Amino acid sequence: MVKGFTLDDERLKQGGRKNFLVPGLAEYGCDHCGARNMGGRYHNHCLNCLWSKHVDDQVPGDRASNCQGLMEPVAVAQNKGKWRIRHQCVRCGKVTWVDSAEKDNFDVIVQLSQCGKFDLRAPHTNK
Known about the structure:
This protein has two helices and six strands. The chain is α+β, with helices and mostly antiparallel strands.
């Protein structure tokens, strides 16, 4: 069991999504720019620079990754009217998509939409 979470291991073995309980909002500092942020549940990227930390392993919010590398925002795309951010871990290379937050620095989102490093087709899953 991960601290603050309840995981359903049987569903994981069958290839299903883990069920978990996520602690409430907590303050955290950005390891890239130093900004202080409030986050929780699936939100752990910096509102200022959009960088994140590789804390999740198999499911958003599980906080089970051993990597702990920084996740660089490399692209954005719109999906169903909402901006999504593509992160790539600078340590292990894992790529994820996350929803943007209402208070994200929109200037950075615009920059990424104009010069992202990856294909900007709208994602439907974290792959």
